[in-house]
């Protein structure tokens, strides 16, 4: 991994990509979504403050666990500008996501445990289907695409 001398306080997009492991296109995307920011040089080149490395690491970690980018942007907006976020900053922000992650883990465990019951049923509206439609009220009347046919007939 390329090292950045301590005296360098700004990074080019290429340096940021090399250090963070994110593609240049991903960095541009993050910037377009307000997750990171840069300043432009007189030659219109992007320059990123060193603290952007930690912000990119945070974004990528959040993405890996499925946190929506809008949620990540809201969290990053709480961080101070021009200061490298501390371990305490990250702990505070990530704590807010713990309940959401716990719920996702619970749902994934449920999916794993009931997946073989669902494969091959076709309609995905069986009364016993605990995965795709656990509170299926329409399944008692009809299953699968018949419900859509009934709705279309009702319109015409």
Quickly describe the structure:
This protein is mostly helical. It has helices at 13-20, 24-32, 52-64, 69-77, 87-95, 98-118, 146-155, and strands at residues 10-11, 39-40, 46-49. The protein contains seven helices and three strands.
Write the layout of secondary structure elements.
Blueprint (H helix, E strand, L loop, with lengths): L9 E2 L1 H8 L3 H9 L6 E2 L5 E4 L2 H13 L4 H9 L9 H9 L2 H21 L27 H10 L1
Antiparallel strand pairs: 1-3, 2-3
Helix % is 40-55%
Multimerization state: single chain
Biggest sheet features? 3 strands, antiparallel
Mean pLDDT: 78
Per DSSP, the total helix count is 7
Low-confidence stretches: none
The ordered H/E elements are EHHEEHHHHH
Total E-strand runs: 3
Strands side by side in the biggest sheet = 1-3-2
First-to-last CA distance: 64 Å
Radius of gyration: 23 Å
Structural class: mainly alpha
Percentage beta strand: 5-15%
Categorize the overall geometry. elongated
Report on the architecture of this protein:
The protein is built from seven helices and three strands. The chain has 156 residues and is mainly alpha-helical. A hairpin with a 5-residue loop joins strand 2 and strand 3 (46-49). The longest helix is centred in the last third of the chain and has 21 residues, at 98-118. The chain is elongated, with a radius of gyration of 23 Å. It starts with 9 loop residues before the first strand and ends with a helix. The relative contact order is 0.08.
Features:
51% helix, 156 residues, single chain, mainly alpha, 3 strands, 7 helices
């Amino acid at each position: 991994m390329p090292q950045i001398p301590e005296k360098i306080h700004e990074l080019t997009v290429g340096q940021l990509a090399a250090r963070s492991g994110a593609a240049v296109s991903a960095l541009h995307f993050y910037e377009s979504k307000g997750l990171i920011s840069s300043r432009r040089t007189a030659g219109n080149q992007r320059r990123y403050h060193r603290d952007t490395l930690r912000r990119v690491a945070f974004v990528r970690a959040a993405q890996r666990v499925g946190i929506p980018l809008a949620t990540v942007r809201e969290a990053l907006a709480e961080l101070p500008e021009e200061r490298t976020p501390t371990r305490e900053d990250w702990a505070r922000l990530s704590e807010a996501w713990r309940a959401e992650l716990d719920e996702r883990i619970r749902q994934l465990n449920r999916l794993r445990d009931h997946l073989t019951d669902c494969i091959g049923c076709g309609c995905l509206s069986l009364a016993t289907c605990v995965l795709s439609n656990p509170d299926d009220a329409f399944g008692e009347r009809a299953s699968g695409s018949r419900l859509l046919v009934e709705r279309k007939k009702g319109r015409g």
